[in-house]
Each structure stands twice: as structure tokens, then as C-alpha cells.
Amino acid sequence: MNLNMSRMGSVFVSIALMEMAIIGALAIAEIDQDLIGLEDDQAQVIRIGAIYNLEGSQSPLDLPSARGAWLAVKEINALGGIGGSEIELNLCDGKSDPELVSECAERLLDLNISAMMGLSDTDMVLAAAPVAALAEVPFVTSGATSPRLVEEYEGLFLACFGDNVQARAGAEYAYNEMDLKTCSLLVDGDMEYARLLAGYFKERYLDLGGEITMEAFVNGSVLDSLSQSIGDRNPDMIYLAVGPDKARTIVEVVRKAGIHCPIFGGDSLDSPELREEGMGRIIFSTHALLDEDSSTTGEFFRAYQAEYGHPPENAFSALGYDTVNLLVEAIDRAGSVDPQAIHEALQNTSRFRGVTGEISYQIGGRIPNKGVTMILLIDGEIAGSEIITPEPALSETDAAPSIAT
Q1: Residue 380's CB: how many other CB atoms inside 10 A?
Q2: What are the backbone angles phi and psi of residue 139, rounded to the nearest 5°?
């Protein structure tokens, strides 16, 4: 096992952002200043709509992502925007409520936006995507990882890898690199993200020769009883497929029960709430390790810290940043603010270099093929990381097996 040792402090400090605000006059990286096809009355501003949950269960992921998006727009506009036109980010807070997320999408369309972006959870995207699709406005989700989303909505793109990829990476890392051969699987049955992630992990782990000693939905379960059942089976590891709001409570209960085996999970575990003493060994798949001294992420790390007074909370901050840059690069290539032209430019994206990796969309595909960063926490401190490129699946949207209880 080859771990690159590093440590990075992480502070989660909430800031007040308006529920519906034109963050305005914000921007990104240096781009071609030649934009054609704008009417005179549109030449001063290019509007991008963003939906993020700044409050509630999804805020540990969405708030950093919104900050990253804000930083990107600020940087772009400082360099002159696109052809002298500023990027205007119109941000709506969905408050971790799918109904409000849907309303946000409707309200953003009223602002004559050219594209929509945001969100870090599949269920939240499922609330917004139909609205964008009906209006034929391209939607780039910065952090929702369900590969099924692109099957349902033609105008939807992922700026991140899919759950099938990160789950395979987690299974291969656990089985091949850490020699963990038995696993208890805990799933939030109410979350599409959790069900898919767990299914993909289970499929790959079993293929490798691993044994699932127990499967259970955490919804409505007595956590102390679940902990007792896990302890009785004494697995080498636990795979925890839940949202960031439930992860900390479950980890705390498991640790108090005297179960000290590694707890694995997906990118929802890339949460500031798990970076505390007493959490033991937590290994999760995520989009990048943000390190001040890194040649690939250091520049973003330093810019984010300068802007907000603390380091990036997690990789979702960089996903928000990358998504704005991706959209602006597509708008610049399209030479137009027309949503259809932007959609075509996005589909033709090749080798876009972001903080979280390179993005290319294959013909007919709208999920980038990116490496997965596995991060090891020991009592809340980053103790190591490794980038895993899992063995390819049959397709980018391969079906996940069902989860039994």
C-alpha cells in the first residue's frame, strides 16, 4: 500500500448567504476574451443559476461547494469575464428540502439564465433536473454522483465521477490494499445515493472474493442493536452508505459499542463533522485531497483560504469551483449564451483541467472518467491518501444490485 502522508487542518465555519442572491461580479481562470453572438443589451452580463443547500442535512457538502463556485466567478470577472461580459452567479438556497430545490429551479429560470449548476446529492438533483430539462437549459451537477441521472435527463452533466466508480474504488482499496475480507454493510434506505453506492460496492466486493457478513438499513433501526449485531459478526470493516447528516451519529454509536474496525464510505463522508477525535479509522472515497503544498490543488487551496479565512472544508469546495470554470469554458467556446449552444459545447468538452481532475465527455456520455481519491482519517486527522483508478465497468451507468435487509 502506497500512501502519500499529509495533514491538513479543516474548519467548518458557516457564513450567511442570501436565500436568493445575485452573487454577481464574480469570476474564474483566464480564458479567451472573444465572445460572439451577444445582443447589445446582454453584453454586460452572462447569467448562471446555482442551487445549493446552505442549510440542513446537505449543507456540509453544499456550503463549501457554493463557496468554491463564488470564488471561481470572482476570479473570472477580475480577469475581465468573457469578452468583457461579467459572469453573474444567481444562487438559490434549497435548504435541503427537495420541494424548495424545485422551486429554486423555477425561480432561476425566471432570471433568463444560460445554464444551471450545483447540488451534491442525487435526490436533490432529481428535484431540480426536470425543471431544467423542460426548459432545455443545461444542468451541470457539481457533486451528485448517480450515474443514472444522465440516463433520465439528456441535458444533465456530471462534473464528478459516478457512484459506480467510487464504490468500485472503495471495494478494491479495502480488499486488495488493506486485506479486509469481511464487511458489514449499513445503508440509508431513504437515499437514492446511499442505495446505489451500497449496491455498487457490494457487487464489486463480492466479485473480489469478499464476504458481506450483514446488511441493514439504518432507517428506523435501533443503532445500539445494530452495533450489537455487527460486534457479534466481528467484520474486518464496515461500509457506511449514508448522508453526511447521519454519518457522525452512526460512527459515534459504533465506536462507543467498542467496535474499532475501519469504517469505509463514499464522498458523503468527506464531511467536517467526521474530523474529530474518537472517530477512529475512517476511509472514504472523494474527489481530491486539497493540500496547500500540492502542485495540482495548492493554488486553489491558498486562494480559498485567502478568500474565506480558513482552508477548504472538503473536496466539494473544489467541485463547485471546477463546475463554474467548466461552464464558463463551454460558454466561451460556444460563443453564445444560448442554452442549446452551451449544451453542445459541454458535450464536446475534452481534457478540461480542473482542481478535481480532468474532464472529458465521450460521445453520448456525460460523466467524466476521473480517478478516485481514497483518504484515511485517524481520529479526525488526515493520515494518508491514494488515487485509485478502479477496473472499468461494462458501462458508465451499469445497474447496481439490490440491497437486502
Answers
A1: 16
A2: -125, 125
For residue 176, the 8-state DSSP code is I
User: Residue 180 and residue 3: Cα distance in Å, rounded?
Assistant: 17
pLDDT the model gives residue 10: 25
Residue-wise pLDDT for 334-355, tens only, equals 999 999 999 999 999 999 999 9
Quick one: the chain helix, strand, coil %, rounded to 5? 40, 20, 40
Type of residue numbered 343: H
- b/e per residue, 19-31, with b = 16+ CB within 10 A? eeeebbbbbbeeb
- pLDDT tens, residue by residue, 10-26: 222 222 333 333 333 22
Per-residue model confidence as pLDDT tens digits over 72-116: 999 999 999 998 899 999 999 999 999 999 999 999 999 999 999
CA 287 to chain centre: 7
Q: Smallest Cα–Cα separation from 65: which of 152, 125, 133?
A: 125
Distance between CA atoms of 240 and 267, rounded to whole angstroms?
A: 11
Domains of the chain with bracketed CATH: 20-161+293-359 (3.40.50.2300), 163-286+372-388 (3.40.50.2300)
Q: Are 280 and 260 in contact (CB under 8 A)?
A: yes
CA distance 339 to 237: 46
CA distance 138 to 14: 29
Tell me the sheet residues that pair with 212.
183
**Beta strand ranges found along 242-338 (DSSP E):** 263-265, 281-286
How many residues appear in the chain?
405
| Pairing status of strand 182-187 against strand 237-241 | parallel
C-alpha closest to that of 375 among 244, 274, 228: 274
